[in-house]
Structures are given as C-alpha cells and as structure tokens.
Input
Amino acid sequence: MKISLKKCNFVFEELKALGHIVSGLSLGIEKNKVAEVLLNPIPQNKKGMMSSLGFSSYYRQHLKDFEILAKSLHRICDQQTVFAMTQERIEAYEKISKALTEEPLLLIPDWNIHFQL
Output
C-alpha cells in the first residue's frame, strides 16, 4: 500500500470528510450540505421524498428523535400508499430541515466526569 502525500493532511484543527466537519472534540455537519437543505422545496412526489429522507438519514445521529419525526414521511414512500403531504407531514419535514440547519454537534464525552446512560 502506498500513500500519496499530496492527498494527506497533517496537523489540522478541523477536517472536512464525507460531509462532516471533524475536529478534536466534535463532529458537525458541513455548512454547504446544510445550505442544500434550505434550497430544496418540500418534495412533491415519492422519489423526491425518498431522496430527502436519504439525505436526512445520513445525518440522523445529529438529529434528536429523527425516527419519530420521519415516521410519517417514511410511510408515504411505501408503494401501496398514495403520496399526500398532510399538515402533519409538512411540519415533520420542516422540523427535520430546521434541526439540520441548527448546526448540531456531537461531542466526545469527558471520561473524567461521572455520567449515566
């Protein structure tokens, strides 16, 4: 195995990788990915909804209660279901979009502090 030094990064405080911003203490979402969420309108068909849910699912670890919010949106992607954006589904979509834009960070726990799971 060979390493290309041109492609390597050394001694960085922050690194962009696979749509995330990785630092020594946290993991965040890349800002240009969040901008894509803001620019996209509410999906008007199953294919658009599946695409949007796929994007959101990639960052699900950053979103509190993602499964609960996305449940009704996943239901309308089923082949036997007629695609209909109800008020509940529009609100769920907007909550997911808003949560993504609030720059949620995952922090590395401080193992010297007592905490319970």
Observations:
- The chain has one domain: 15-102.
- Helices lie at 31-39, 46-58, 66-75, 87-101.
